[in-house]
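Retry 2 of 3 after timeout on previous attempt. Resubmitting C-alpha cells to design endpoint.
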C-alpha cells in the first residue's frame, strides 16, 4: 500500500516538473516602460507553442496580477486545460507587483468612497490603456479577456467591471479584500449588462479574518440573487488560505471556459434536452460560432457533440432533420461514413430507397476493409435492397 501511495506521489511530482519545464520555455520576461506609472514594470509573458505555427489564429488574453504568486499556477492550469480540450490556448501576461510592494500603491483606494487613489488610477490606465494597446498591436488577440487577482489585487480587478464598458469578460477574485462600497458597485452594475456575457468567479473561506470574509459572504449573497442572464457567477469556499489559490484557479477556469468544452451532461440537460431537432442543430452551430468569435479557435464541431444531440434528431419529428444533420457531418468529416448513414436513413424513413442505397453505399465505401463495423454497416444496404425487392414483388403481383 505504501509503495502504491509513493508511486502516485512520484507520478504527480513528475507531472508537475514536466509541466513546469515545458511552459517555462515559452515564458519571456519583459521590462515595460510605463508612461502612466513613470517607471519600468516587469511582465511575465506566456505564448502558446502553436502561436508560431498558425499565423491566422488568435488567442484570448489573460492578465494576472500578483504574478509572483499567481502566474505559474495559472499558466500550468491553462496548459493542462488546453491539452484536455477544456479551454482554448491563451496568451497570459503576469504583472510583477511584489519586489518593492508595488501592489499596495497599484491597488490603493480611497477609504471615503472606495474608488482608486491617484496611484491606483495610474495603474488602472497602465493596464486598460498601455497593456491593452501593446498586446493588441503586437500579438494576435481575440476579443475574450480575463483578469486574475488575489486579496488586495482581487478587489482592484472589480474597477474594470464597474466601468461603462467592462474591460474584461472574466474576473477571477481569489479571497478579495473588498473595499467597503465595491460589493454594492458590482450589484448595481449587473442589471446594466446587455451585450457580452460576464463571468465572475469568487472564492473565500473561514481562514480569512472576519474583516474580509464578512464582505465576501455579503457579496456572494448579493450576486447569487441576481437574475441577469448575461452575468454568469460561481462561488467557492475552501479550507486553507494558501491551498485556495491552487484550488480556485482550475475551478474558475472550468467555469469560465465551460462553453468551449464539449457538451457535458449538465449542458445537455439544461440547454438542449427539450429542444426540437431544428433548434438542437442551431444550438450546436451557434455554440461553435461563438467559440470561434470569442476564443479565436476555429474548431470543427466535435464528433462527441454531434452524437450528444443525435437522440433528439432520431427520436423527434419522424427523422425530418436527419438529412440536415448528415449534411453537416459530411461537410465537417468528409472521410467519415456517419453523415452518409444519417442521410441514407432519412431517405429510407421516407421510402425513397434508391436515394437511401446511394448514401449507404457511399458510406460503406469510406470504411477500411478491416473495420469491425463494416459488416454491420453493410446490413443497411441489404435491408434497403430487401425493401426494394419487396415493393417490386408487390407491384408484379
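Retry 2 succeeded. Sequence:
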Amino acid at each position: 500500500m505504501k509503495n502504491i501511495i509513493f508511486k502516485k506521489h512520484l507520478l504527480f511530482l513528475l507531472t508537475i516538473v514536466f509541466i513546469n519545464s515545458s511552459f517555462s520555455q515559452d515564458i519571456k520576461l519583459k521590462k515595460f516602460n510605463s508612461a502612466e506609472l513613470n517607471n519600468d514594470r516587469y511582465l511575465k509573458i506566456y505564448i502558446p507553442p502553436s502561436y508560431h505555427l498558425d499565423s491566422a489564429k488568435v488567442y484570448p488574453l489573460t492578465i494576472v496580477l500578483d504574478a509572483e504568486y499567481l502566474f505559474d499556477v495559472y499558466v500550468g492550469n491553462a496548459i493542462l486545460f488546453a491539452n484536455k480540450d477544456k479551454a482554448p490556448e491563451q496568451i497570459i501576461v503576469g504583472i510583477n507587483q511584489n519586489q518593492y510592494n508595488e501592489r499596495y500603491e497599484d491597488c490603493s483606494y480611497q477609504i471615503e468612497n472606495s474608488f482608486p487613489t491617484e496611484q491606483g488610477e495610474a495603474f488602472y490606465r497602465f493596464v486598460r490603456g498601455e497593456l491593452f494597446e501593446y498586446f493588441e498591436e503586437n500579438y494576435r488577440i481575440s476579443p475574450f479577456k480575463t483578469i486574475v487577482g488575489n486579496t488586495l489585487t482581487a478587489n482592484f480587478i472589480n474597477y474594470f467591471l464597474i466601468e461603462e464598458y467592462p474591460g474584461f469578460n472574466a474576473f477571477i477574485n481569489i479571497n478579495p479584500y473588498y473595499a467597503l462600497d465595491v460589493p454594492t458597485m458590482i450589484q448595481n452594475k449587473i442589471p446594466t449588462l446587455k451585450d457580452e456575457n460576464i463571468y465572475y468567479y469568487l472564492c473565500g473561506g473561514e481562514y480569512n479574518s472576519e474583516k474580509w470574509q464578512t464582505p465576501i459572504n455579503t457579496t456572494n449573497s448579493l450576486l447569487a440573487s441576481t437574475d441577469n442572464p448575461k452575468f454568469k457567477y460561481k462561488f467557492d469556499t475552501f479550507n486553507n488560505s494558501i491551498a485556495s489559490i491552487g484550488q480556485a484557479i482550475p475551478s474558475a477556469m472550468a467555469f469560465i471556459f465551460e462553453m468551449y468544452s464539449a457538451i457535458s451532461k449538465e449542458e445537455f440537460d439544461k440547454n438542449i434536452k427539450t429542444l426540437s431537432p431544428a433548434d438542437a442543430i442551431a444550438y450546436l452551430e451557434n455554440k461553435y460560432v461563438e467559440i470561434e468569435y470569442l476564443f479565436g479557435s476555429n474548431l470543427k464541431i466535435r464528433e462527441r457533440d454531434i452524437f450528444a444531440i443525435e437522440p433528439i434528431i432520431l427520436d423527434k419529428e419522424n427523422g425530418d432533420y436527419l438529412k440536415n444533420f448528415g449534411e453537416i457531418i459530411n461537410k465537417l468529416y468528409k472521410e467519415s461514413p456517419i453523415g452518409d448513414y444519417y442521410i441514407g436513413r432519412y431517405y429510407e424513413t421516407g421510402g425513397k430507397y434508391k436515394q437511401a442505397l446511394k448514401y449507404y453505399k457511399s458510406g460503406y465505401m469510406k470504411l477500411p476493409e478491416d473495420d469491425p463495423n463494416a459488416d454491420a454497416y453493410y446490413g443497411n444496404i441489404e435491408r434497403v435492397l430487401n425493401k426494394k425487392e419487396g415493393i417490386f414483388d408487390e407491384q408484379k403481383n
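Attempt log closed. The chain has two domains: 2-256, 265-396.
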